[in-house]
Structures are given as C-alpha cells and as structure tokens.
Specification:
There is one protein chain. The chain has about 700 residues and is an alpha/beta fold. It is about 40% helix and about 15% strand. It has 25 helices and 22 strands. It starts with a helix and ends in a 10-residue tail after the last helix. The structure holds adenosine-5'-diphosphate (ADP) and magnesium ion.
C-alpha cells in the first residue's frame, strides 16, 4: 500500500481547512472524529433533493423543507432590544414571504445586502396565520452554489454543542466538501480487483466521494452498496478467520464413540421419541465432536423445542468417551430446574449429577469439588459459580451454556481453561435470532437449528385485553383453574423504576388474592428481591400444584417448566420487548392442554407497542417474531449484542441488508478457502486492510 495514502487518512482533523482547535476538540468529544478518515466515515443519514425549487406561493408548512430562488426586497429589525429579530422580505415572481432570524441578525444583515439573487432552503412554519421561514439556509447564487444545489444533499447527524460552533448538518457538509475535494489518489482500495470486477463494485475513492456528494440517485445507490459490502465483508472475514485459526491452534478431544450411557438411555429411558430436528442436530453435534476439532456450536431453537434433551444426549456422548460435562445456566432457578429434570431422566443410570450455585452450602461445595477432581462426579449443573477457579475437573470434555446472551464473552473464555485443552462448547440460545444477525454475531460459530416443535403441541392462543376487561380475564382464569390448570401472572420489573414496579407487583398480588381467596385458591409470588431460598420454596409450591396461580416478575422468563400451567397473563404487556414476550409465552403450552396467553395493556398504546402486541397475537413463530423485533429496534438493542462489538456498524443495516451480508460472507469464505493466510498477491489489499482493522482488537480466537 502506498504510505502517502495512509498518512492522508490518518491526518489529525485539526489540519482540515475550516476546523480550528476548538471545532477539532468538539468533533472529537461529540462524534469521536479524530482523523480525516473518521470524518469521511460519518455517513449521511439521509439526503434532500436540492433539484426541486418551489415557488413562493407554493410554500406550505406541510413540506418537510422547501427550496426557493429569489431576491430580497427589504430588511427590518423588529421586537424589543433584548428580543430582536431580523425580518427579510423575500420574493420571486409568484409572491413574497418572510425570512426570520432571531440570532446572528447583524451578520445576516450584512450578508443579504444588495441586489443579489439567493437560494433559500428551510422549513416553513406558521405564526398567527402567516407563513414564514425561520433560520433558513441562504446562499448567493454563484456557480459553485448552483452546482451544489443541483444534487442530492447529504444530511448529517450533529449535536447541540456542535451546532453552537456552526457545525450543524450544513456545517459538517461544508467540511466534507473540503475534505472530499482532497481525497483524489489518497484513498487506497481495500478490495481485490477480482471482487470489484465480479460484483461490479464501485471504486473506494469514488464511493466515498459519491456518498457525500452524490451526482444522482443511481450513483448513490452504488456507492452505498460498495461501502456496505466492504464493511460487512471485513467483519465476515474476521469471524471466519477466527474459526480457521481456532481450528488450527486448538485440537479438540476426539469423542470417537457412542457407548453404553448414550445407548442405554436412548433405548430404555428416553421419555419420548426424538423429533426429526432433534435427531438431525444430535447428528451434527456428534460429527463435530468426533472430528478432532474443538466444537463451538450454537444451538438455536424456539422456546419449548426441546434443547435440554439435546444437551443431555450430548453430555452422554462426553461421558461415554471418559469425560465429564457441565451445564451453565444464567439463574439459580433455571440451574435447579435443569438439575431436577436431568437427574430424573438419568435416575436409572449409574451417573452422578450435582448442582452447584452461589447458595450451595460450604460443606456441600467441598464435597462437590472433591468429587469433581476424583472424577466420581460426571455431570455438574450450575450457575456462574461453576466458572470460579476453585472448581477443578478431573477431565472436563464438554461445556453446555444455556441462554447464552446472559454471559459476557470474557466469562465464557474462562471455561476454556478448565482442561489441558479446551473442551467442546455447545451454546444454547433460547432467543431465536434472525439469520443475518446470527451470521454477524455468531459468525465464528457453527449453527444448529431445531426448527420443529415436539408433536402434539397445540399453538398457544394469544389475545389482547385492556385493563378495563380485567374482570372477564379473572373469570376465564377461574374456568381454567376449575378444570385443573394453573396460571402465571407476570409483571414487568425494569431496573430504573424498580421501587414503583415492585409496588405495582405487590398491589397486583393483593388484588389477585382478594379475587382468588383461600381456601378455594392459593397464590404464589416470586420476584427478584426475594431470597433464593424463599423463591425456591414458592416455585416448588407452584410446581407441585399446591398453588394455582403464580404472580411473578420476569424471573420466570427463562426456562421454568410447569406443563400443567396453561394460562399466561402478562400485565403492562406494552412495556415488554418482543423477544421477552415470546419467552414468557413459552412458559405455557408445554403440556397437552390448550394454552392461552393474555396480553393486558392500558388503552393508549404507542405505534411500536401496537406492532408488538399485534405481532404476538398473530404469530407463534419465534424466528418471525425476531425479524420484526430486529426491524423495530435495530440490532443494537437485541439481547446479547451489546458486548459483542461486531455490531458497531457505520453504514450497514442488518435488518435491511440481508443479501449483502450473505454475499459478503460467501465471498469471505471463498477467499479463505483458497488462501487461508491471505498471502496471494491478488489478496494483498484485503490482507492489509484486515491487519489495519484488527490491530486493536482483542484476541477473540480464544473465546467461544
Ligand atoms: P427448550 O428448548 O425451551 O429448552 P425444553 O428442553 O425445556 O425446551 O423442552 C420443552 C418441553 O418439551 C419439556 O417438557 C420436554 O420434556 C419436552 N420435550 C422435549 N423433547 C420432546 C420430544 N421429542 N417429544 C415430546 N416432548 C419433548
Ligand atoms: Mg430451555
């Protein structure tokens, strides 16, 4: 690469004409713009069409903006001295309109003097029945301005502080013009000629120029495409290379056989037939663990699709090959549930299973530690307590991580050190993730998908009720309880308003107890501020059927399994996100009975809330719901994406750019297949950019 180019893009922003030390400081603080490159990658968020001119008599407050061409008839200062404004009468052949300035009037007075022609650009408002344009952009008609005005004009994000130093969108646009005028021969290409040719990608320099100063919509579209491709391509290249490096550096334990434990369980104790999807996924996992490579696999499946059973059978394969296995769950409740269902399924087999959480007593903990090290303990189930350094295994071969998004990446890395070489890792995600997002977030993992629910499941019938219909909802609950079913009632508990929410929950609980009084009814309550032991006690009462109603916060969101519960009432449903609603609904419909989910909301709903509620009422498909969620919220807000760092996208939109993600991935994959170390001369540009981009990144290859 030509070193002069590098220097240009790395030039500190204060060297740009028009950026003094003050503005430079603000650009750094407000937009993290330190260099020319940083400014160049502040991409416009929209464009306005500056080819359209309105006549003065067409101006209406309904337009988002108008552009006029004309002259100034007169200027007057109005108002009290402390509150002065400049009124300029602007006219063209169709009429006259007032332009107003409340600040900077003196400067404007000077600028607007004389018999000149101007272009005015702004948003019209109405004051006492009169239409005017406050603080428009105004520029003299000159050759340069005409050229500018006759194109799509970029609009940039700015901040209050930047605006106060003249760097509103227009101000940034002006800086960009200066910068772009200088980029010629200074922007190194990063993509190989092969790819540029094959996919007809615009040159990088031209793309940067066009994205900020598009000549026409067609060129703009091409520039966007090129820059998105580049962004996504290098992400995919990194993820796929991590996988290559990992597979080269870390050998995996070879689980060569399926033996006694697996076969006995499969033939004698399997409580039901596996679904086709479960079978397929177990096969994929078996193949992986026998390949000599370390498995890093994401297991995706909707709530209730039977991931736990897949995890169990995977663990049995580890045991059959002389290894230990463990499951890490995000909460104590969930760990306890796994422990119970798994010990029950393994009851008749000579396999020792133990539970280890933060509330395990010291004396028990000691025993568990010992048995782990001697190898008499085969399967350990627990929370993050299991990650502590004191927890040492004799020979750990498999780690199952449930509800992956709750764990930080660094936490997971600790588990790799629990054996002389990294154990196999199976990550189970309960939140379905749209494909493009999965490809980007977990692009270095292999993915297995369970896309089939166990037979006999009846779709959950979901309805939306307003608070005013509560008595009818109570009536319905009574009917269901009368035929032997149980009911969940869930309240939101969101941290910022924790106290208020807790009160809300307790009020709700009291009104439930009034409507469902003993001795006919019994009600349990569980929330995050209760002691673990109390929580567990209340949960158990509900699990055993001693109580018919469980009033809870989202602590029950993950994993709780009570097949007899057939009604899920969600209070203030408008306050929950889509994936959370779907998770909660997944708590019912686990038995053979017809199940119901009732979303309670207040009467007034925002547009987004309406979409969320309607989506829930209309669909039971977790992947479909996840797509809507991604469109509504963008990837940054989806659970688990914050710590990933890969979603710091400058121009791409994972909800919209599905095809580009796929293309970028297949290109990256093909290149690595032919040239895994990027040594071919034709890949030199790619290699250099890759190194450049990843200089400051953590070594993610150690992380599952
Ligand atoms: P999730 O994927 O949400 O973790 P679980 O593993 O908790 O789902 O399974 C949900 C329920 O379905 C459990 O009660 C489990 O026993 C049951 N189940 C799992 N696999 C099957 C199957 N093949 N046939 C029938 N029921 C199954
Ligand atoms: Mg589960």
């Amino acid at each position: 690469m030509n070193s002069r180019s590098q220097t240009f893009l790395d030039t500190p922003i204060e060297y740009l004409k028009g950026v003094g030390p003050q503005r430079a400081d603000l650009l750094k603080k407000e937009l993290q713009v330190f260099t020319f490159y940083d400014l160049l990658t502040q991409f416009p968020f929209r464009y306005v069409d500056r080819t359209r001119f309105y006549k003065v008599n067409e101006v209406s407050i309904d337009y988002p903006y108008v552009q006029l061409r004309g002259k100034i008839k007169s200027m007057t200062m109005a108002g009290k001295p402390r509150n002065q404004r400049l009124i300029a009468k602007f006219y063209d052949e169709s009429g006259t309109i007032d332009l107003l300035w409340f600040a900077g009037a003196k400067w404007m007075l000077d600028k607007l003097k004389g018999e000149k022609e101007f272009i005015v650009f702004g948003k019209a408002t109405s004051f006492k029945g009169q239409i005017n344009i406050p603080h428009p952009e105004i520029e003299e008609v000159s050759e340069e301005n005409t050229r500018l005005a006759s194109s799509l004009q970029a609009v940039y994000n700015s901040t209050e502080k930047l605006k106060s130093k003249g760097l509103d969108s227009r101000g940034i646009y002006k800086l960009m013009r200066v910068l772009v005028a200088n980029i010629h021969k200074n922007i190194p290409e990063t993509i190989s000629d092969e790819l540029l040719g094959e996919y007809k990608l615009m040159q990088r320099e031209r793309a940067f120029q066009t994205i900020h100063l598009p000549e026409n919509p067609e060129a703009l579209r091409k520039a966007e495409y090129r820059l998105k491709f580049e962004e996504l391509f290098f992400i995919q290249l990194r993820l796929l290379r991590l996988k290559v490096i990992r597979q080269k550096n870390f050998k995996g334990f070879v689980f060569g056989k399926v033996g006694e434990y697996f076969n006995t369980f499969y033939t004698q104790y399997l409580p039901f037939d596996l679904t086709g999807a479960q079978k397929r996924v177990i096969k994929e996992i078996r193949y992986d663990m026998g390949s000599g490579k370390q498995m890093n696999r994401l297991l995706q499946g909707d709530v209730g699709s039977g991931k736990t059973l897949v995890a169990l059978m995977t663990m049995l394969i580890a045991l059959d090959n002389g290894f230990q296995a463990c499951i890490i769950a995000p909460t104590e409740i969930l760990a306890a549930q796994h422990y119970e269902s798994i010990s029950k399924m393994l009851e008749k087999l000579p396999i020792k299973v133990e539970l280890l959480t933060g509330s395990t007593k010291k004396s028990n903990r000691k025993i568990v530690h010992e048995q782990l090290q001697t190898g008499t303990l085969h399967i350990l189930i627990g929370t993050h307590a299991l990650m502590e350094d004191a927890v040492l295994f004799k020979n750990l071969g498999l780690i199952v991580i449930d509800e992956q998004h709750r764990f930080g990446v660094a936490q997971r890395a600790r588990m790799w050190k629990k054996n002389t070489q990294p154990p196999h890792v199976l990550i189970m995600s309960a939140t379905p993730i749209p494909r493009t997002l999965a490809m980007t977030l977990y692009g270095d993992l292999d993915v297995s998908i369970i896309d089939e629910l166990p037979p006999g499941r009846k779709p959950i019938s979901t309805s939306h009720k307003f608070d005013s219909q509560r008595l009818r909802v109570f009536g319905f609950m009574k009917e269901q309880i009368a035929i032997g079913r149980q009911v969940y009632i869930v309240y939101p508990l969101i941290e910022e308003s924790e106290k208020l929410d807790l009160k809300n929950l307790m009020d709700g609980y009291e009104s439930i107890v009034r409507a469902f009084a003993p001795p006919d009814y019994r009600v349990s309550i569980v929330h995050g501020q209760m002691k673990a032991a109390d929580k567990n006690f209340e949960m158990q009462r509900f699990v055993k059927g001693e109580t018919q109603i469980m009033v809870a916060t989202t602590v029950i969101e993950v994993g709780v399994n009570v097949p007899n519960a057939s009604v899920m009432v969600i209070e203030n449903a408008e306050r929950f996100g889509l994936s959370q609603l779907h998770q909660l609904r997944g708590r019912v419909g686990r038995g053979a009975d017809k199940s119901y989910c009732i979303l309670m909301t207040s009467f007034k709903l925002s547009a987004d809330s309406k979409i969320r509620i309607n989506t829930m009422v209309g669909s039971n498909d977790g992947f479909e719901i996840a797509e809507v969620d991604l469109r509504l919220r963008g990837p940054g807000d989806l659970s688990g994406t914050q710590q990933s760092g890969v979603l710091d996208l400058k121009i791409s939109d994972l909800a919209k750019d599905v095809q580009i993600v796929q293309l970028a991935r297949s290109c990256a994959s093909q290149i690595l297949a032919e040239d895994p170390t990027l040594e071919k001369p034709s890949n030199q540009r790619i290699a250099q950019q890759y190194v450049q981009l990843n200089q400051n990144k953590t070594n993610w290859s150690r992380i599952s």
